[in-house]
Specification:
The protein has about 750 residues and is mostly helical. The chain is about 65% helix and about 5% strand. The chain is built from 29 helices and eight strands. The chain has helices at about 5-20, 20-50, 105-115, 130-145, 155-165, 175-205, 230-265, 265-270, 275-310, 325-350, 350-355, 360-370, 380-385, 390-400, 405-435, 435-440, 450-455, 465-485, 495-520, 525-530, 540-565, 570-585, 585-615, 620-635, 640-660, 660-675, 685-690, 710-725, 730-755; strands spanning about 55-60, 70, 75, 90-95, 120-125, 170, 695-700, 700-705. A four-stranded mixed beta sheet has the order 4-1-5-6, sandwiched between helices. Strands 2-3 form a two-stranded antiparallel sheet. It has a two-stranded antiparallel ribbon with strand order 7-8. Helix 14 (about 390-400) runs antiparallel to helix 15 (about 405-435) and helix 25 (about 640-660) packs antiparallel against helix 26 (about 660-675). The radius of gyration is 35 Å and the shape is globular.
């Protein structure tokens, strides 16, 4: 690689971008205008968000007697509020009872008034409220005398509870204002109750402090450091950093790739002496620079606007000064990752308009990973560190909060995952630039009728990549909506027949049926699409042995997955209930439903139609991994999805190397049958077969194998044997291998010439 070529391409791309008014607007003008305008808007709309007074209708206010003061000057007493200014938010209206009317009639009138919206809440005191308060106090004084000290505590509590006065409050949940008024009234009532408790304590000769035996003192240790208010900024700044790094990378990438296609300058660049990897690196560094500059300007504008708008609020604290250092360090890998992703997507786009359509899918994929760390339960641990983007955000959040020891523990993992994601994204971008069919795709106008006729009349023996992706998306969507309809309601009885019905509908209607329909409609050779051919006779027993050997390894990996991502208590309860349902059925029925039926249906869909279509990408292992990821997404529980993805890689490898779906079905069937059968073994089976104690031992919820590493080595040897089998290649795979052989021969020839 010639870095002089990279430098020339970098300077060329930077000059082109600085001439683009849209890029300059996104980078410089938008951050300067956007956040100050938002700050000004916040100040303007504050008048609309101020708390408004609510009306309270009071019925029977004269029935309070000698109780502690509740009203003062036609409003609640000021001492009943934590903040006396809050008294104005409760406007009192007293119901006139002249001439005197029965309390039931007054209460009905208050009920109608609240229901009609004339008042937000009504507070009704019964006619005998004063007498009830006096009787309650007398009961307290009597029970506090020495003569009552030997009385049963439970009977005394029952007597007290029966004497508690109970006024009524009337409100309506159809109105938010009424609910707010009820909450404000509850606060006043709690303070008044406290005053009444103090009065009762004084009446029996106890000090008022007895009502507060323990007082909790609060000390904010962050106030003594520079990290006061860091919890807020640690949630906001990382997400803003990601959003603006992504946005700042996307538009320059679209202009540098799809824009050059439209301007006709891409061919000139590709015909230059620079290699494709040098072109990609030059464009990547350009996009990174603009991404980082956009993120820096936006974060600076956010900080300045926040300081100007919220600086006068006492609870507001600026971000810690050291946050600038951590944001700058995190910005480099994040910008590199998003720049490579945007570059690859932009290279795939035919035009600038098409490239802009890819921003929303990229945001939809990235935003959940960025927002997940903002949830209250999210914390930096090993499991979350292995998730791209999420681990980086959690690490940055810990650094901003000053939790350096925690951040250092998982720093190597996050760096390794982020670096691997960056390298994969860069490799994808290089592959896009190495593919002539991607770079020189012609813009086309979609004609639905023409497209359908082409789809039905010009069918190929196997589906296209788009057809495979569409089939997977259809399976996922159908399963999502139908699973919600088939799942039992809370409290509804669920037996084995219900499980069998749901499982058969899921496998046959949601997974197998879409794949078979698309095979019949979109392909000309169902046999070739679904790999319905006889494999070499040794591959089927080899697949069965491989499933047996990998069973201990899969169990060990499953334990690790559950340690990284523990199952929630609610899900555990659901799974225990499902296990009880399954244990009530004969073993052969479980094997039929959980092993045989899924092995056939899922393999026809994922290792048949979907894998056959994905092999048109030209790389065998990419097709295998893509189909495994889609296979994992088809499982609803996270832990199951991860395990299905891992097993799906082995299934795809077996199907490709054997050239048939039958070994994959055999592997899948044996794998599921072992998972079902080992949980149904009798408790004394190890006593009857002592030799098996050298292989397996009982643990809580199942069994653990002693030799997973040895079984894994044997399984690896068997997979190497599968890898040496000759297998049928797709036309794209043969072409890609020919291109790679040609490039290697050119490199060898160049070396020989130099030598």
């Amino acid at each position: 690689m010639s870095f002089s070529n990279v430098k020339l391409i970098l300077s060329r791309e930077i000059r082109d971008q600085l001439r683009d008014r849209r890029t300059l607007f996104m980078m410089f003008v938008l951050p300067i205008l956007l956040y100050p305008l938002l700050g000004m808007s916040f100040i303007q709309i504050q008048q609309f968000t101020e708390e408004k007074p609510t009306s309270v209708l009071v019925v029977g206010a004269r029935n309070l007697g000698d109780a502690p003061r509740l009203f003062e000057n036609s409003q609640f007493a000021l001492e009943l509020f934590s903040d006396p200014d809050m008294a104005r938010l409760l406007e009192l209206h007293f119901l006139r009872d002249e001439p005197p009317r029965p309390m039931a009639e007054q209460r009905d009138e208050a009920h109608r008034a609240v229901q009609a919206g004339q008042f937000d809440v009504a507070l009704c005191f019964p006619e005998t409220f004063a007498e009830e308060v006096e009787q309650f106090q007398q009961t307290i004084r009597r029970l506090a005398t020495p003569s009552a000290s030997g009385r049963n505590g439970e009977s005394a509590e029952l007597e007290i509870n029966s004497r508690i006065p109970q006024p009524d409050t009337l409100y309506t949940t159809t109105s938010d204002k009424s609910s707010i008024a009820q909450n404000r009234l509850d606060e006043v009532w709690n303070h008044w109750n406290q005053r009444l408790i103090e009065t009762n304590l004084t009446a029996v000769g106890l000090p008022v402090a007895a009502a507060r035996p323990v007082e909790l003192k609060r000390w904010d240790v962050a106030g003594e450091t520079a990290y006061r208010g860091a919890a807020l900024w640690s949630k906001i700044l990382p997400v803003l950093l990601l959003i603006w790094a992504l946005t700042g990378a996307f538009y320059p990438a679209v202009d540098l790739c799809a824009g050059e296609k439209e301007r006709g300058t891409l061919e000139t660049l590709l015909s230059s002496p620079a290699e494709r990897s040098e072109i990609v690196l030059g464009k990547l560094v350009t996009i990174m620079l603009f991404s980082m500059l956009t993120a820096v300007l936006n974060l600076a504008s956010v900080g300045l606007t926040g300081w100007l708008v919220f600086g006068d609020y006492p609870e507001f604290a600026p971000p810690p000064p050291v946050s600038v250092l951590w944001l700058a360090i995190a910005l480099v890998p994040i910008s590199a990752l998003f720049s490579a992703l945007c570059l690859a997507l932009a290279a795939f786009a035919r035009s600038t308009k098409e490239g802009q359509y890819y921003l929303m899918p990229l945001l939809l994929i990235t935003m959940p990973l960025a927002v997940l760390p903002m949830t209250p339960g999210a914390e930096l641990n090993l499991g979350n560190s292995l998730v791209p983007v999420t681990g980086a955000v959690l690490l940055l959040r810990s650094a901003l909060e000053g939790s350096y020891l925690l951040a250092l523990r998982f720093l190597p993992v996050v760096v390794a995952v982020t670096l691997a994601a960056c390298l994969l994204a860069v490799r994808w971008a290089v592959d896009q630039f190495n593919s002539e069919t991607v770079l020189f795709r012609e813009s086309e106008r979609l004609d639905v009728g023409l497209w359908l006729r082409h789809l039905l009349h010009d069918r190929q023996p196997t589906p296209t990549v788009a057809g495979a992706v569409f089939c997977a998306a259809a399976i996922l969507m159908v399963r999502f909506f139908m699973s919600s309809a088939l799942s039992p309601s809370p409290g509804e009885a669920f037996d084995f027949l219900d499980f069998a019905r749901v499982n058969l509908i899921t496998q046959l209607a949601m997974i197998a049926l879409p794949a078979l329909l698309m095979t019949a409609l979109l392909t000309s050779s169902p046999r070739q699409t679904l790999l319905l051919r006889l494999p070499p006779w040794r591959t089927v027993p080899a697949a069965i042995v491989l499933a047996v050997l990998l069973h201990p390894v899969v169990n060990a990996i499953h334990v690790v997955v559950q340690e990284l991502y523990p199952v929630s208590e609610n899900l555990k309860a659901t799974l225990r209930g499902m296990e009880q349902v399954l244990n009530s059925a004969p073993l052969w029925q479980l094997v039929l439903l959980i092993a045989v039926v899924p092995a056939i249906c899922e393999e026809l869909a994922f290792r048949g139609f979907i894998l056959s279509g994905l092999r048109h990408v030209g790389h065998k292992w990419r097709a295998i991994v893509y189909s495994a990821v889609l296979f994992g997404l088809a499982h609803t529980i996270l832990q199951q999805s991860l395990m299905a993805c891992i097993v799906g890689v082995v299934l795809g490898f077996v199907a490709v190397q054997s050239g048939s779906i039958l070994p994959a079905i055999a592997f899948h069937m044996v794998h599921n049958a072992l998972q079902v059968s080992i949980g149904r073994l009798p408790p004394d089976w190890l006593d009857r077969w002592p030799v098996l104690n050298y292989l397996i031992r009982p643990v809580e919820g199942g069994y653990m194998f002693h030799w997973p590493v040895a079984a894994g080595v044997a399984a690896l040897a068997l997979m190497i044997w599968f890898g040496r089998l000759p297998y049928p290649k797709s036309a794209e795979e043969e072409l890609q291998e020919a291109i790679e052989r040609g490039s290697h021969e050119d490199d060898d020839g160049a070396v020989r010439v130099v030598a």
